[in-house]
Design a protein that fits this description.
The complex is a heterodimer. In chain A, 65% of the residues lie in helices and 0% in strands. Chain A has four helices and no strands. The termini of chain A are far apart. By secondary structure, chain B is mostly helical. Chain B is globular and about 70 Å long. The chains are: A mainly alpha, B mainly alpha. Chains A and B meet through helix 1, helix 2, helix 3 and helix 4 of A and helix 2, helix 4 and helix 7 of B.
């Protein structure tokens, strides 16, 4: 039985496994990185909401990296580097799609009639 | 040049079409599943972009600050985060070949996932009851599409989880079931990563003035 399992563990060597320590570390980091943004928003810590938005987006980015490393076991070596390559390619597409959409659509309402005039219309 | 090489190879005996030192992934399923997750990530990127564009178009209706119940979202977030680590514990027990402990942790993960889904459905029902359904404004349409798509993924994840619990219970921790559990592990942790974007970009930034 154990010989069979040794063989099996060798078979999926390309995928790295987590350890109890890595899962618990990731979980503690994730809890801290989740609690701080909720506290910042619910406790109204910063008076300027754009500062709050930037800070919580930063926390989200860090937490995504924490989840990738400790829960999804991302590293440059798994599957011969192909998972990392696919991830980088996807991130490039995500950044283009998100920033491109927001940039192009930012001027969506510029040539429209002012919205508040609608109230006085029949 | 090419002909020359080919003929020399043919002369030397067996032709070789690839480099012998080229690395092949030893388990193609996990790489293939990772590619599926990356394409799923692009779906969510498009939905996030739609929400980013339309998220402030309230059509004189309620805004995020009027609707979102942050304590409820905090409970939901902790349920999903807890389910992530309990799935991690299930994977650790699977590596130690402990069938029963694996099933127990998988069951706890499923219960936490169902709790998340239940709270989300309660929130949706509450919003629709208040007249803030998806047809109310562009903001609410994009909100329901984005959060609903994530919830649908969680629902399918739970169905997959229950199916796998029966498979593991019937056939034990055979290599096929280990492979399936690893795929679901990636799927489950991936949904938690997407939820980080949802609670930050939709809920927390939605209540900011």
């Amino acid at each position: 039985m154990s010989a069979h399992n040794d063989h099996h563990h060798h078979a999926d060597d390309g995928h790295s496994h987590g350890t109890l320590k890595s899962y618990v570390t990731g979980f503690v980091l994730a809890v801290i990185l989740t609690a701080i943004p909720f506290w910042l928003v619910m406790g109204k810590v910063f008076s300027d909401s754009s500062v709050t938005a930037m800070v919580i987006l930063g926390f989200a980015a860090v937490q995504i990296v924490v989840h990738m490393v400790y829960f999804l076991h991302m590293n440059a070596k798994s599957e011969g580097g192909w998972t990392m390559l696919a991830l980088i390619f996807t991130l490039v597409l995500v950044v283009i799609a998100l920033s491109g959409s927001l940039w192009v659509m930012y001027h969506l309402n510029h040539n429209m009639m002012p919205a508040h005039d609608m109230r006085h219309m029949p | 040049m090419f002909d020359n090489t080919a003929s020399s190879l043919a002369a030397s005996g067996v032709p070789r079409y690839h480099l012998t030192e080229e690395h092949h992934p030893e388990n193609g399923t996990l790489l293939g599943f990772w590619l599926y997750l990356m394409s799923d990530c692009l779906i969510f990127a498009c939905l996030f972009a739609v929400y980013g564009v339309l998220g402030r178009n309230y059509a004189a209706g309620p805004s995020g600050a009027d609707l979102f119940d942050l304590p409820l979202v905090a409970v939901n977030t902790s349920l999903l985060l807890l389910s992530s680590i309990t799935y991690g514990f299930a994977m650790l027990e699977m590596q130690r070949d402990r069938l029963k402990a694996t099933l127990v942790w998988l069951g706890i993960t499923g219960v936490l996932g169902a709790g998340f889904l239940g709270l989300e459905l309660y929130e949706f029902a509450h919003l629709i009851h208040e007249g803030a359904g998806p047809q109310r404004s562009a903001f609410l349409s994009s909100f329901f599409t984005l959060v609903g798509t994530h919830g649908l993924h969680v629902a399918f994840g739970i169905i997959w989880l229950v199916t796998l619990m029966f498979q593991v219970g019937k056939h034990g921790l055979i290599p096929e079931n280990r492979r399936r559990l690893m795929c679901l592990s990636m799927f489950w942790h991936f949904l938690d990563v997407i939820w980080i974007g949802v609670f930050t970009f939709v809920y927390l930034m939605g209540v900011l003035p």
